[in-house]
From TrEMBL:
Homodimer. It is found in: Cytoplasm. This is Redox-sensing transcriptional repressor Rex. Keywords: Cytoplasm, DNA-binding, NAD, Repressor, Transcription, Transcription regulation. Pfam families: CoA_binding, Put_DNA-bind_N. Its main location: cytoplasm. Residues 79-180 form the CoA-binding domain. The gene is rex. It comes from Weissella oryzae (strain DSM 25784 / JCM 18191 / LMG 30913 / SG25). Transmembrane segments: none annotated. GO terms for cellular component: cytoplasm. Belongs to the transcriptional regulatory Rex family.
Length: 213
């Protein structure tokens, strides 16, 4: 993503805007208002206008936003023309699901290499992706110029792995383990805690139910 001084929450919404604008363009729509966008992406119109304002005047009063121009703009911001290679470490049940998801069909990222300790799958192709031994980790990351890694290993192995990834030149880690990784400032970590997300969802559901009783 190009460098812009924007809030983290705004940055996380940009891919959602980009995907919806793609759908609009495919349907033949040429312009859209912030209210129409709000209805589709479920963010309020004021939030959308504030997000867009960080990038200057993207729309026109009384006209709205040009769909193709806006989509191309966010495509450049998100580096959609550059296909990023991603390493997947841990080809268990979750890792297999991520391989089958096939990121490159809907984004500018693709899993190009997977790593595991299971001798039964090392040196095989899983969902079109070669699986290497953990001993090949640093060499493959360097050879394939991989800068992003997805980590789905057991928590006990996560920190040692993060240390290896940082030393190998990885710049970003998508961490599916419950452990909060200690990494250098040059490495960005995005934590995906499925258990926490589910518990949060249940909390809000239960509180809504209680409020309605």
């Amino acid at each position: 993503m190009a460098e812009h001084d924007i809030p983290r929450a705004t940055a996380k919404r940009l891919p959602i805007y980009y995907r919806y604008l793609n759908l609009l363009l495919d349907s033949g729509k040429t312009r859209v208002s912030s209210n129409e966008l709000a209805e589709a992406v479920k963010f309020d119109a004021a939030t959308i206008r504030r997000d867009f304002s960080y990038f200057g005047a993207l729309g026109k009063r009384g006209y709205g936003y040009d769909v193709e121009a806006l989509m191309n703009f966010f495509g450049r911001i998100l580096d959609q023309d550059t296909l990023a290679s991603v390493a997947l470490i841990g080809v268990g049940n979750l890792g297999q699901a991520l391989l089958n998801f096939n990121f490159h069909q809907s984004s500018n990222a693709r899993i190009s290499a997977a790593f595991d300790i299971n001798e039964d799958i090392i040196n095989t192709i899983q969902a079109g992706v070669p699986v290497y031994s953990m001993g090949d980790l640093e060499d493959q990351i360097t050879a394939q110029r991989i800068e992003v890694a997805i980590v789905t290993v057991p928590s006990v192995a996560a920190q040692d792995l993060a240390d290896r990834l940082a030393k190998a030149g990885i710049k970003g880690i998508l961490n599916f383990t419950p452990l909060r990784l200690d990494v250098p400032a040059s490495v960005r970590v995005q934590n995906v805690d499925l258990t926490n997300e589910l518990q949060t969802l249940l909390y809000f559901i239960n509180n809504v139910d209680l409020a309605n009783e």
